[in-house]
Amino acid sequence: MHMADALLSPAVGGTMWAVTAGVAAYSIKKVQNELDEQKIPLMGVVGAFVFAAQMINFTIPGTGSSGHLGGGMLLAILLGPYAGFLTMASVLVIQALFFADGGLLALGSNIFNLGFYTCFIAYPLIYKLIIRKGYSTGRIFAGSLLAAIVGLQLGAFSVVLETLFSGITELPFSTFVLLMQPIHLAIGLVEGLVTAAVVAFIWKARPEIIEKAALGEKLGGLPIKKVLAGLAIVAIITGGVFSWFASTYPDGLEWSMLNTSGKEELEAPDGIHQTLVSIQEKIAFLPDYSFKKVSTDAHEQKVSTDAPETEEAWPAVDAGTSVSGLIGGAMTLLLAAITGLIIRSIKKREKASAV
Amino acid sequence: MSNPADSLYNIRILDEFADKKSIIHDVHPLMKVLTTGAYLLVTVSFSNYELSGMLPLIFYPVIIMTLADIPMVPVFKRVLLALPLIIGIGLFNPLYDKSPMLVLPWITISGGWVSFFAILIKGFLTILAALILIATTGMTRIASALRTIRIPGVFIIQLLLTYRYIAVLVEEAGRMVRAYSLRSAGEKGIKFRDWGSLTGHLLIRSIERAQRVYRSMCCRGFTGEYHIGREKGIGIGDILYFAGWSLSFVIMRYFNIPEMIGWVMMGVRR
Question: Is this prediction's ipTM beyond 0.90?
Answer without folding.
Answer: no
